[in-house]
Every structure is written in C-alpha cells, then in structure tokens.
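Follow-up to my post from last week.
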Amino acid sequence: MVRVGLAIVLAAFIAAVLGPVISPYDSSAQELSRRLEAPTLAHPFGLDELGRDILARILDGARISLMVGVAVVSVSSTLGMFFGAVAGYFGGRVDDVISRVIDVLMPFPGILLAIALVAVLGPGLTNVVLALSVIGWVGYARLVRGQALRAREFEFVQAARALGASSARIVVRHVLPTALPSVVVQATLGMAGAIIAEAALSFLGLGVQPPTPSWGSMLDAGRSHLFDAPHLTVIPGIAIALLVLGFNFLGDGLRDRIDPKTVR
Amino acid sequence: MARYLLRRLLLTVPVLLGVATLVFALIHLVPGDPAQAMLGDGASQEEIIKLRQSLGLDRPLLSQYKSFLSGVARGDLGRSFRNNAPVTAQIRERFPNTAMLALAAMLFAMLFAIPLGIVAAVYKGRVVDHAAMTLALVGISMPNFWLGPLLAILFSVQLGWLPVSGTGSLAHLVLPAVTLGAALSAILARMTRASVLEELRELYVLAARARGLSGSRAVLRHAFRNSLIPIVTIIGLQFGAVLTGTIITETIFAWPGVGRLLIQAINFRDYPLIQGCILFISVTYVAMNLLTDLTYGYLDPRIRFE
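User reply:
Got it. Predicted complex:
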C-alpha cells in the first residue's frame, strides 16, 4: 500500500514540476473556436469552456493542490507541535488554556470554519491556506500533547533535566522527536485533507480565483456543461481522487509500519 | 443518568459560547470596513455611515458583543443586508429542506451500507467481501463535489431517469441524498464489517450455531445486534460531516436549503446572513453531538460513570 501511495504522490510531484515539459500548451492559452472539444490525440484530455488545454490545466492545478497541501501541513504542524509540546510538557495553567481551545475547535466541522473564514477574509490562495491552517493545527496539537505528557516521564528526559538542560532544549531535542513519527503520519493524511478542502473551497468559488487553474474550480466550470462536455467534470475529478487516494494509502501504510498494533 | 445528563449539558455551554463568540468575531475579520465591503466601491459616505449604524458597528465592541449574544439568546440574528428579511425567518424557511436532505442521506447510507457490511463480514475474504470493500474505498476517496456531477451525468444526462437539479418530487431527492450519503455509507460499511466480524468470533455465536440456529439467524439475531453500539455511535458522530456536506451538495443540485443560502449570502457579502447560517449549522452540529453522547450514555451505562 505504501508503494502504491508513494508512486502516485511522486508521480504527482513530478507532473507538477515538469508540467510545461509534459504538455506543450499554455494552460491559459484560449482557442475559442474549439471550446469544449472532446479528448483527441493532440489534446488527450480535451479542451475546456474557453478552449484551453485541460491536460495543461490539470498539471498546473497539481502544482496548486500540492502547494496548498504542503503550505497548510507545514504551518499547521508547526503550530500544532509548538502548542501541543508546550501544553503537554509544562502542564498546569498553560495546558488548561490550550486544551480548552482544542476542546472547542476539535469537534467543530473544519470545512465550515474554513468557509466562514474565507467568506469574510475574501477568496484567494493565501486566505485558503490561512483558513485551513487555523483549523489544521488542532489535530497536531492534541497528538503532540499526548506524546509530550508521556515523554515527560521518560528516564532520558528526566536525566536531561537533572543535567541542567533548559526546557526549550528538552522539548526540542527530546520530547518532539518521540512524537515525530506520529506527526509524519498525520501530516501525510493531512495532505489529503488539505487537497480535498482546497478543491471544495475552489468548487464553491471561495478558493483559488480564475484564471489560475485549480482542480476544484475546473469541476465547478464543468457543472454548466454536464450535457455537452462531460469530460470537463470527469477528468479533474479523477485527478483529485487519485492524489487523495495516494496520500491516504501512504499515510495508512506509514501508520501500519510505525505502529503495528493498528494493522487491521 | 440525571447527573450524567446535567454534566453533559453543562459541558456544552462553553462550547456554545465559543461558537457564538467566533461567529460574532467573523464580521470584524473582514479586511477594511465591512459596511464598505457590503456596499461596494460606488457607495457614498452617507450610505456607509447609515449601514454601519444599522449593523451596530459604530458602537463599542463590548456593547456590540452583548447585544449580539442577547439577540442570539432570543433567536434574533438580525436582518439580511440584501432583502432586509429577518435572518431567522430565512433560515427557518430553508431548514426543512436541509433536514430532509440530511435524513434521506443518512437513511440511504444505513439501508445500503449496513447490509453490505454484514454480507462482507459473513463472506470474509471472498469475492463479495473484496467487491464491497473496494466500493467502500472508492466511496471514501470520491469527494462529493465530484460524485454529484458524475451521478448527474449518468442518471440524468445519459439515462434520463432523474432530474438534474431542483425540488418538487421524491425523484429530485434521490441524487442529492446518494451524493451526500456516499461517504457515510463507505465508513458505515467498513465499520459494520469490522464490528460484525468481531462479534462472529465470540463463543456465543458458536453456541447459537451449536444449538442448531441457521447461519443467517445467528448472524442477524446475535452477532449483528451486539455490534450495533459502535454502528450507532458512528452514525451520530458522522452527522456533522453530513450536515456540512449539505453545503456542497445543495450547491451542486440547486437544493434550496441552509447550505445553499450560506453560499448565496457569501456571494452577496451579506454578512448578517452569513453569520446566521454559520451559527445555525454549528449549533445544530453541537446539539447532534450532544444527542449522540446522551444516546451512547443511555445504551452503555459504563460511559455515565467515567
């Protein structure tokens, strides 16, 4: 499973980077006379409602999806590790405050909060990343807090404290590394979540704005052409589902390897 | 049970207060002046000042917060900026549609996924099992904003069996309900399979078989009944996902519910209506979680004493 996932994810990264090499067309070049043309040899994925090459747009869209995924996962995992480690390691009042915030945000439907934030902040790539990170950190924080609570009692942590290491050093050098494997798994699955959420927001018109291609907004455009050009709907959807499946396979596989207890 | 009920209800208060505060804060997160943003660039200074006054934005923050909370407590969420209708009335008008859609989706998921999960468990490792679990994996990986249009292409455009969008008949409900319920079905089928498999290993099932009960009777009367608690929990916990899923599903199928109202409000920058919809969906969500917890506590007495 890990291999299949890894293969899909690697292929997506390569496609995103080598996009211009793979497709000779510019993703924003329009050929209005050939709009909605079905797939042909010259345009294997066909043309969209403005006569743009869908393959080129899928490749550019992959870059957007992966960029959003990497940005959201980086920001939210960093914030989550910080707050989680601080709460778990120091405990007491700090832990109370952070834990209450986690308690309120954790059960809250993430996509609703993201829609609310983007609705007021305005659409666009940066605001999408911001909105998804604001909700994303909570999962990491809860995970790391639990690990930090346990790590605090480990002998090597107590030894470090006895040797006079500062709290910051203990957290960074000793506590966080024990949580890292779980964070990596969470981050891999988080990539899938962020990619779906970005596509959903763009589908609703709240994400990446035209003419920048996003798989979600491509699907939205396809909605008006269900009758005359179904390839506008089919192709971006396959791209999203495949990439999400890839990250899910990779995440699940990594988790099974790191923690054999969860193997079903 | 009474103590558990009271404690659980009290725990909900800070969550509700947090949600209300968050929703209140939304309008203050608008970059620049919300009144200016709502009216657009062509608005005169006078119009902007008037809107600021009617939204209460000219008053101190604390006083705004107090009147917002007291309004929420009275069920007064202000008036829509676009048509001046009370926000509560608009939500009340749309909510039955959303509720119908969500319930239909959950019903579809249960009727489809639970039998599928049971069959997969009974025929573990056989073709049926693999087919069912592959279907479930596909269901989980397919975002509803793709599944919806795909179903519309197949059943409306190609086969002409069902209407593409709108309301009016039971046929209109089918595609939105299946789209919304697909992810839940996938999760539920996997959960049912795992849960029934676990029970099938128990000795009481073997005993039932030894007493001469037929295979299907042993499964349905004994194993399945005992595996119901985790299944009920999953259904309750997944309600939130179904509820937020209505936002996208209603947009795809032009279904006149609260989710579509929210997206329309966003497009018009109708901030009071946006706040109202978000608050309403969140509170419904919290209430459903509470209900799930209480049901769970009722079904499994151990929970109450934790």
